[in-house]
Amino acid sequence: MKKIIIIKYGELTTKKDNINFFITTLKDNIKNCLVDYETEIKYDKGRMFIYANEDNLDVAIEKIKKTFGIHEINIGYEIDDNSIENIKKSLIELIKDRDITSFKIVTKRSDKKYPINSMEISRQMGGIVLKNKEKAEVDVHNPKMVINIEVRLNNKVYIYFDKIKGIGGYPVGVAGKGLLMLSGGIDSPVAGYLALKRGVRIEAIYFESPPHTSDAAKNKVISLAKKLSEYSGYVKLHVINFTAIQEAILKNCPHEYLVTIMRRMMYRISERIAKKNNCKVLINGESIGQVASQTLTSMAAINCVTKLPVIRPVACLDKLDIIEIAKNIDTYETSILPFEDCCTIFVPDHPVINPTEESASEYEKSFDFENLISDAVYNENIIKVENKICEEHSSIL
Ligand code: ATP
Ligand code: MG
């Protein structure tokens, strides 16, 4: 009898045509997150089975809890000899040290050729529990313990008691890749997390303006990318030096349009980095109405510089809801560290609330921004942020 981890896929079982791709992506993602532990992974269409050294099972589960595409995680026992006598013997062994009061047996028989049907297996195993545990009583409606028995096609039987809720979503990567505009704030890491949850692998882009913004501000963004990498294994972070562009905007454009034009430049650069890296969409933390640059008119005047779809996962969430997610994924405390962002240092007293695309384009003609944009893209700095437990610093690619 081997103690193993059993995984149920949940939502992805509804994807008929793509199911193999979904499952193999999930397997690769799990394999990557368990790379430091010797594990073997087997799977069929309904379940994935993870074999690891028993001492590593707990830490493996902590990692798997952060893997998208999983509905339920069970610590189970694999039995090679599927004869009914052997199942009974194994069950007696497994319940020996467990406290059992009210219980129910749930049997699933995917091997339809197995000579005994599910009802009968449940009945016989229920009898075993009643005989061996003094306080045990059957309660099919509201049992304190559910004992699951699965007779599967691979001639093996699995018994498990406890279930852990998986994080859900789709395996990261099945939906392709997107470029997350990652600032040090609260919203964009949450946006990244939600995109990952839908199976989008993310790369991230961060605009810095040294010396107006500090290394501390950049390190904060790296820490946030590292938090996100717990859900995706790694995040490739593109750091863009934005100083020359911001200074040129400040010098040449009307102040009430500073933010609009600055954000249009960010979108243009993001689009180029996205295309270079095969990212199909831009993702950001804009939320309708939160600040002047996030009114619908403002978003329209900014968004029109790119043809790429822009996904805004938190667009319709209240700030309090965004904060709740940020706390759950443990990015909140980092996000509220008080370091300046390139957006905040050039904020005019009275930003325009209803900017127009025409005016923005007109003002942009006052300076040749194209050269600066190309330079910024060319001189990007790439940091591969990895989810390694013992690693203190991220490696530069
Ligand atoms: P956040 O809390 O994510 O910083 P915010 O409410 O402060 O968002 P803005 O500063 O207007 O809003 O930015 C809106 C979005 O633009 C951010 O969520 C992020 O996706 C992107 N963004 C802003 N500043 C940067 C930056 N320096 N680098 C990369 N992306 C940025
Ligand atoms: Mg911000």
Q: What oligomeric state is this?
A: single chain
Which hetero compounds are present in the coordinates? adenosine-5'-triphosphate, magnesium ion
Rg (CA only): 27 Å
Could you state the order of secondary-structure elements as H and E?
Answer: EHEEHEHEHEEEEHEHEHHEHEHHHHHEE
Portion in beta strands: 15-25%
Low-confidence stretches: 389-397
Q: How many strands appear in the DSSP assignment?
A: 15
Please tell me the overall pLDDT. 92
Query: What percent of the residues sit in helical stretches (DSSP H or I)?
Result: 25-40%
Counted by DSSP, the helix tally is 14
* Spatial order of the strands forming the largest sheet: 2-3-1-4-8-7-5-6
Separation of termini? 44 Å
Sheet with the most strands, sense and barrel status: 8 strands, mixed
Shape: elongated
Class by SSE composition: alpha/beta
Description:
The protein is built from 14 helices and 15 strands. It is of the alpha/beta class. Helix 9 (296-303) links the parallel strand 12 (281-283) and strand 13. The longest helix is centred in the C-terminal third of the chain and has 19 residues, at 258-276. It is elongated. The relative contact order is 0.12. Bound molecules: adenosine-5'-triphosphate and magnesium ion.
